[in-house]
Amino acid sequence: MRIRVIGGGLAGPEAALTAARLxxxxxxxxxxxxxxxxxxLTPAHQTTEFGELVCSNxxxxxxPNTAPWLLKQEMRRGGSALLRIADDTAVPAxxxxxxxxxxxxxxxxxAIEAEPKIRVVREEVTSLECSDAQTAATIVATGPLTSDAxxxxxxxxxxxxxxxxxxxxxxxxxxxSIEMSRxxxxxxxxxxxxxxxxxxxxxxxxxxxxxxxxxxxxxxxKEWEKLDYFESCLPIEVLARRGRDTLRFGPxxxxxxxxxxxxKTPWAVVQxxxxxxxxxxxxxxxxxxxLKFGEQAKVLRLIPGLENARFLRYGQIHRNTYICAPALxxxxxxxxxxxxxxxxxxxxxCGVEGYTESIASGMLxxxxxxxLARGEEPAPVPRATALGSLVHYITHAxxxxxxxxxxxxxxxxxxxxxSLDQGTRRRVRDKKERHRIxxxxxxxxxxxWRVAIGHPAAELRP
Length: 462
Description:
By secondary structure, the chain is of the alpha+beta class. It has 2 domains: 2-162 and 321-453, FAD/NAD(P)-binding domain; 171-314, Elongation Factor Tu (Ef-tu), domain 3. Helices cover 31% and strands 18% of the residues. The strands form 5 sheets. It has a 6-stranded antiparallel sheet. Strands 8-2-1-9-18 form a 5-stranded parallel sheet, covered by helices on one side.
């Protein structure tokens, strides 16, 4: 039995590599391709390669006993192929896992080409009907830029429509064009290594920057006249319109970033994060926007240190499409009422938000699809785990007000205080201790599930 995977972003390759590792034949479809010597791309992609990161290059915190760390630890124990590649292509980023995006993508391509059980098909899929009796499941992992034709097909099959919002990507600057005498290296609260370039602003500089940002001309929307942004990824100009201090309490928050040259905390700070190991380019953290390119250059060059900046990529906006998972999916990511064809969804289109979360859902989809190919009913990952909590959210949230989610402790099961001894009960009043216990419980639950379903143990690195 074979698995059909549609989408070559993050969730699709992860699902394909997972299913292949579990013995399945896989067909991996990707619509981006070279046609008559020219690349056929989406509005946001710049290459035809698998695993291209179009926004940040960060897979979030590696600080122990945080929710993003817990999710990645479970994925490592599950043998996530893309997370292993991310670890191998990591660039210094303080206490976060960030990758060299070009090398990350190249290594994913290598892994897929080296896997004999995966056949790559470079064409757009417009129908999800499958009459092939040898196909055990189809995994739709087409992400936020699902084509119009496939979107209509999904809408036809679900009968419930699907939602869409607009997401945006941050600018990237040439490292050689940064005026290093105006900036300093530091990590917030000195946690991890000082891998971020910090551009400090005093109050007058901040006010001048904010006024220019508020006056800047937006890019033409065309068919995007009615923009519905995702609340956790708002363009900086949208945030700025909510109040003069909104940016100072958001992406330009200076707290924990004392300037070592003055010993003082700036009024506001713009942080730059490495794009690759060569450190020849940096992205402006949290500075996604929807301004005209010329306006971006004018406004962003008001940031101390970026007066003569050369921008390798400007901020852009793109559509993000996702289904209403609480109404449509079961806890194994299978479309309800689709028992015959076993249509599954993974990645951002199923309602998870973020690179790590997308890869995680792809890993689960690959595991569940492999079980179907063996003629078994998939066993859902336990609710007590980060993986299980993420899936529980997207399949049990209020369907009327559903929005994609990142992994947070709010999604995980709270501790049952009655089951704890008195000493532990006292300790869990401390948030760090509570999070440590929740993480320990989650990893134990994941390991028990892994053993129960016979999933191979992964080699964990120090």
